[in-house]
Design a protein that fits this description.
Elements lengths: L1 H12 L3 H9 L23 E4 L1 E12 L2 E8 L5 E9 L7 E10 L4 E10 L5 E6 L12 E8 L6 E10 L2 E13 L6
Length: 188
């Protein structure tokens, strides 16, 4: 009865039934604020923590991706790295392959930018790590897609995901950082 009612509503509204199937099977988002558009008073994106030694973090309307503000992270010479990080509960992702994707840009050829993920067991030991850092990308403030995959062991308790700049002093722009579970049927 319910299925028939839904199909009648779909026919009335002109929507395709596959839209409902996609909506019913979509998994909940793994990260909060993946577009980094919601920021707090300090300029940090809501749902994310600052990681490392940033000198300044601010929403930047001048360097954009798809018309959306980017998150500009500045760090000083001698600082090891700066970026953002978010913690995922392992019970949502343990035993799965997690895909971390971000759109990043930089202004200096002596600093690297990338997305990363690190898995921990319940004792806090690191049990998996991946990153996308590349030093040979142009330093032209143009956004490039960074993507990694990390297969998480079943004993994963916590996963940290983030985006960072490290190396020499400089600025990086983050145009979004997202995480998803890769299913066996996914092709990338």
């Amino acid at each position: 009865m319910l299925r028939m009612l839904v199909l009648m509503m779909v026919a009335t509204l002109g929507a395709h039934p596959s839209i409902l199937v996609a909506a019913q099977t979509a998994s909940p988002p793994l990260v909060a604020n993946p577009t980094l558009q919601a920021v707090d008073a300090s300029g940090a994106p809501r749902g994310w923590s600052l990681d490392g030694t940033a000198v300044e973090v601010a929403s930047d309307p001048a360097v954009t991706r798809d018309g959306l503000n980017s998150l500009r992270v500045t760090f000083a010479k001698g600082a090891p790295y700066a970026g953002i990080v978010q913690r995922l509960r392992g019970d949502r992702v343990n035993g799965a392959t997690v895909v971390i994707e971000g759109w990043l840009a930089r202004d200096t050829a002596t600093a690297a930018v990338g997305v990363w993920a690190r898995a921990f067991d319940k004792e806090g030991r690191s049990i998996g790590y991946a990153n996308s850092y590349e030093l040979d990308l142009p330093a032209d403030k143009r956004f490039r897609r960074h993507s990694i995959e990390l297969r998480l062991p079943p004993e994963t308790n916590t996963v940290l995901v983030g985006a960072s700049i490290y190396g020499d002093s400089g600025m990086a722009w983050f145009g979004g950082v997202d995480a998803s579970i890769k299913h066996d049927s996914d092709t990338r």
